[in-house]
Design goal:
7 helices; 17% strand; two-stranded antiparallel sheet; TIM Barrel; globular
Length: 259
């Protein structure tokens, strides 16, 4: 299983996997080119975090500050193990992490987002959105065909009502696909239904994908338009880990060893 440590000045983040491989076949993601081999047990997920915590302390002399379920796999398709692993991570007998320092990212399965609301989870939820119209999202994320943006909007509203948590929207910006000001308007219209923040993410090139990274100037204009016109909270995430295929969307188990 592949986990990655993301160091920065203010935080030390463990990015962990919930499945070996993935069944969702998102066209911009290397993991989506693999078949899903299996779900990862709660104990194995916990072990990933412990290993990364030890590396953080050994190499950076910093404690782990955040955990993100943004590695391989769709966490909500391994629902019980993911929630059980978060129980371990937040319990005093485990790592005693605050659930507010944990984020689970989903490609968007409406009924399971509602299930999280019913379970009144305390951790943060992120939606990998990447396109804000069904026509575009269907092109790059086949899961959208069964989980339309209208159903996701309803599920996220329900989740927010049940938990009070703000949603994070992840948006990989792709050259000449979803980087226009018209796309930004569509994004704002979708995101404004719930209290949220938006992470605009630079695209990391992968083998066998026909996408390019959006121009930096266009990316900055896109983010500024969302902030200034729609008063949204926006972060532009610069890519890290590209050199070792550990950046966002690149985890693909290239050596095929399954631990």
């Amino acid at each position: 299983t592949e986990g990655v440590l993301i160091p920065s000045k203010k935080r030390m983040t463990a990015c962990i996997s919930s499945q070996v491989g993935c069944s969702l076949t998102c066209s911009f993601c290397a993991t989506g080119q693999l078949e899903r081999l299996r779900n990862i047990d709660a104990e194995e997920i916990f072990d990933q975090v412990v290993i990364l915590r030890n590396l953080a302390e050994e190499h950076y002399h910093q404690p782990l500050s955040n955990i993100v379920y943004m590695g391989m796999g769709e966490p909500l398709l391994n629902y019980k193990n993911v929630l059980k692993s978060i129980e371990y991570l937040t319990s005093e007998k485990g790592l005693g992490m605050s659930p507010k320092r944990i984020t689970v990212s989903t490609a968007g399965i409406s009924k399971l987002i509602k299930q999280l609301g019913d379970d009144e989870v305390k951790f943060n939820l992120a939606l990998s959105l990447h396109a804000a119209t069904d026509a575009k999202r269907n092109q790059i994320m086949p899961i959208n065909e069964q989980n339309s943006l209208a159903s996701l909007s309803e599920a996220l509203t329900y989740f927010h009502e049940k938990t009070g948590s703000r949603i994070t929207f992840e948006y990989i910006i792709l050259k000449n696909f979803n980087d226009s000001l018209e796309d930004a308007k569509d994004l704002a219209a979708f995101c404004k239904v719930v209290p949220c923040k938006i992470n605009i993410i630079e695209y990391n090139p992968i083998d066998n994908a026909n996408f390019e990274k959006a121009e930096e100037e266009k990316t900055d204009k896109f983010a500024a338009f969302l902030e200034n016109t729609f008063n949204l909270i926006v972060n532009v995430r610069k890519s890290r880990g590209k050199d070792i295929d550990a950046a966002c969307g690149q985890l693909a188990n290239k050596n095929k060893a399954v631990n």
